Amino acid sequence: MHRSIAQGPPPDPGGALARTAAPRARTALVVGLGLVLACFALYQLTRPAYQTIYNHFSWQAEGWLDGQFSIRYPVVESADGPGNAYFNDVIAVLDERGAPTGRGMIPFPPLPALVLLPFVALFGLAVDQTFLAIVIGALDVAVAFWLLGRLPVRPTVRNLLTVFVGAGAALWYAASLGSTWYFAHVVAVGLTLAAVGLALDGEAHAEARPGGRGKASRQPIDGRQLAAGFLLGLAATSRLTVAFGFPFLLLVGGGGWRRRGSSAAIGMAIPILGLLAYNLAGTGTLFNPVYEELYRYEIGAYPDLGYQAAWSLQDIRYIPQNLGVMLAGLPTLLPPCDPGVVRLPWSAAGCSWVIPEQRGMSFLLASPAYLLALPALGLLHDRRVVGALVATAAIAAVNLMHFSQGWVQFGYRFSLDFAPFLLVAVALGTERFLGPREERRTGRLAVVIALVAASVAIQAWGIAWARTLGW
Fold this sequence. Notes:
Shape: globular
Largest sheet: 3 strands, antiparallel
Order of helices and strands: HHEEEHHHHHHHHHHEEHHHH
Radius of gyration: 23 Å
Helix content: 55-70%
Oligomer: single chain
Number of domains: 2
Strand order of the largest sheet: 1-3-2
Strand content: under 5%
Structural class: mainly alpha
Number of helices: 16
């Protein structure tokens, strides 16, 4: 498996390439900054009118500041401060007699709480978690723009796909909402994008060396790949399944696959071992047991969601029904008329023809620009494409085995776990679809623009309904 590369740099008489590179870089910087600021404004303008009431990580940060692994729970809202008695994803800590202790444990990995820790220390539980999600979401867009610059795609593709990442995919919904589950996604996305970008950067530098990829490095560890592994492992301390994107780092980066893999594995091991140590200190086991107890609770509490008592919380038998949500989930057509719902102009008889399905919708329907990955199937000789598709499939498979697929939501929020990898295939597929740069195929470019525009419009529709329905 290889990629065709030019042997050595092209001739540059008079330094013409060097003179044009700086203005192009400045233009790219201005465009990228503009896109990031536009996404920040978009997220801020479309956030809910209220602060999120699901702020488990803020309570976890407060617990740490009190010297505890657990949080205060259940706390009833009062004039003295906010409450959390309505939280579902908490298991009460009992004493040796089985009596409540006024403490609780949450099942989520700790990195989002660590991100919130300094802000909780300054502002307490009143910290605006949604605003922080908006800021981090805008930074995620910046990292996506940088990543796309590590790929051989034209500026038009780079700019369009940055718009797609920021406003045409699930990141918009996640960053503008900022509740517990979405905050974890927003934190993980940027770290994963950075890991992918570093691996791509290492790949490019390896091929730019005299002798190309065939020139082996004498260093046993590749610094970029180690850093990429560390960032991917760090992302996994926010969203566990991101760790299954490791095959990308095995296939893409500097050096041979052994050097790439060992460097990335060492980097990943640092935060993941830290997570295991945290679990051991907080729960007495390497793997947080809280989710297992919550799973048994949710089986009885939500009978309409198809959870099976005879199955484990991570079970291969969940794949068929969850795959239907991920790929074929549809909105609700001709829903019953609810006079309590705000009526919109395109409604029929005072009610909407169609509303989003809160259990989730096909990520291809919610973000059709992902279909631009299909032309990349003709590039399976390229390690970057193979790594992106294998990582996407691995993460998706593990997520599909999970009993829950992330409701209440618009679209399919678990797509954010593999989106940074799939973005590589989308970018290279788009470039292949457009054809050689010297051939101006305006019809094909119009297709790309239409898919990105449709993705943005569908996301806007979903978010408008989410705000209307109080999701």
